Amino acid sequence: MAEVFSLEDLARSITRQWRLLIVIIVVALAAGFAANEFWPERYESTAVITVEPISVSTTGQASEPANMDTERVVASSTEVLTLAAKELNGPTVAELRDGLVVLVPKGAEVLSFSFTADTADGAAAAANAIASAYQENRVTTAKRVVEEASAGLTAGIAEITAEAAALPADSPARATLETQIQALQERQAILRSASFNAGSIVSPAISPSESTKPSMPILLAASLFVGIFVGCFVAMIRARVHRSRSEEDAGEAKAGARRQRPAKIGTGTENAA
Predict the structure, then answer these.
(1) Where is the region Disordered (predicted)?
(2) Within 89-215, where are the H helices?
(3) Per-residue pLDDT at 67
(4) Which three-class secondary structure state does DSSP give residue 112?
């Protein structure tokens, strides 16, 4: 049958071993003080930007809203962090990646760039630099896609122009080709006139006034709680061990007493017989 250990037993164990409990609490509080001394100062700053769809696509039609899951991945990509590292002229790409957290608030087309660093100014500078690098990279990528599409249209126009030039001026086929050339030129003009608005920083990162390090009262409160918990646990274990040993000693004492008990002397009648 499992041994039952009541709250009364626990209270009695703590009362008997109060010295041990105090020692454990003092050690826990000392650990809290040490943690406060050696816990590194870390600062977090956040920049929030909107993510606007590119004004036109390669087909010349209005583009669809940005895929925020994809944009979140791009925001922490090596390409973006390399641009930010060049602007900051200090931290490496790996260091920027370690300190960065990019989030997408639910239901919003915005990106939140949170950066943690050893200094308040460093955290704010890195968050703003990465947000700006993301915008720059997004515009550069969009321009490259449009330029490649425009180059393809230029090649197509040249090919159709050469084909039309080989036909008679009054040929119906030539008129059809010239119509195609005009449509391609209009499409190319739309692409070349496209504006690229990647978004804007709606909440720039600022230097935080406080670090993310827990305050002394919080550390001491946590240490006190841990000390009391561990002390009570140790007291309970020691009480169990002590009870088990006491029961074993009592059992051995009874067994020894039975072994040493003298044999019964026969009655007078038995002796006469």
Answers:
(1) 244-273
(2) 93-99, 120-165, 172-192
(3) 84
(4) strand
